[in-house]
Amino acid sequence: MKTLAKFFLVLLVIAGCSKAPVNSKAPSDYIAKVDGTYITQKDLKKQFEALPAFMKKIYNNPEGMKKLTDELVKKDLIYLEAKKQGLDKSPEYKEKLKEFQKLSLISMLLTKEIEQKVGVTDKEIKKYYDTHPDEFSKNRVRASHILVKTKKEAESLLKKLKAGANFATLAEKNSIDKGSAAKGGDLGFFGRGQMVPAFEKAVFSMKKGEISGPVKTQFGYHIIKLTGLKKGQKVSYDKAKESLSKKLLTEKRRAAFDSYIEKLKKSFTVKINDKKLKDIKLAD
Hints:
With about 280 residues, the protein is of the alpha+beta class. The chain is about 55% helix and about 15% strand. The protein contains twelve helices and six strands. A four-stranded antiparallel sheet has the order 4-3-6-5, with helices on both faces. Helix 1 packs across helix 4. It is elongated and about 90 Å long. The N terminus is likely disordered.
């Protein structure tokens, strides 16, 4: 079963690539022939380059090249049989082909307009590192929280806390996070990267003893109290640089993408049929 899964993984990776056209004369560098169609060294290299890094390590040897050639032959055999059965004439195939062409063009355009134009420099990375020291500390905080479903509930509890109510008592009675509620809302000590972004941003900007306003996450609304802080050493720039580079690049490209979409909206007419949309039910 694992061998079959591996075969289909390779097949999926290489399936979209084309091979050498049919020639009456065999190319000098051909490595396989399937019913008159030649697979060349150039084709093999192209398929190898399309493999993920971990698979390149597996196939980068004579035995691996033989196995990869075998997979290319299998692909061509299946392709020829599919054409023989006339599947390339089916409506389903034509629809999938249209979708593939659409996705390919989208990918090419985004590569041209976003990936090739938006990058981050070492100067930008260093500037961010120097101006956001707290993000690279190994500080650990201890916090308690009260989690409720609505903002209205959170605001009501916040009023009670400001009036002098006991945080732990309110957590035990009201928090829907039953695990921490049993401990008066206590979450113990934790570092960066252990909580969802909105919660982390709030708690690491607080002072010991401070109680936050309602903080919204995918779980509901949190009232947070910072109860402890352990100072830690700062992560060095060299250790932080790679992950920070990826973070900044992702953020810049996301912003560039959003800006590019807004630009396109001015070039094309977009109209959403809200009346029709609200009546659509795709699942029970």
